[in-house]
Amino acid sequence: MTKIRVTKEFKFETAHALMGYDGLCKHIHGHSYVLLVTVLGEPIQDPDSPKLGMVVDFGDLKKIVRKEIVDKMDHCLILNKKGSKAQALLNSDEMFERVVTVPYQPTSENMLIDFVERLKNKLPKNLALKHMLLRETITSYAEWYAEDQ
Fold this sequence. Notes:
This protein is of the alpha/beta class and 149 residues long.
């Protein structure tokens, strides 16, 4: 059977700050992120299946990615939990109710590694996560490929 790659695109708004960075990104700022998720599988051949011909229903993939990534990151402030100021923001004001602290510097590269880990074991067994792309700006993005691992 022929293997097919299927990609779904997601968009979310997130702010972050890079602790200790030597440029403007050390300050809180936001991005309109675009995340592309590509899976590999074989189209369903069961003529009785409502998913006949699909590798995965785009709606099913959307539910997984939204639950594991988008709903948790959209309209959040992501900060490295090692920063003392990050902890002070938690519970300080309703404006900071959606602060997410992570155990890494929240660069596009590290966020993408985190997102890959979040999805790997949540996909149906017949699908393989093959590629993810996280676009931070119109001209800047990070990519992950399974074959590079």
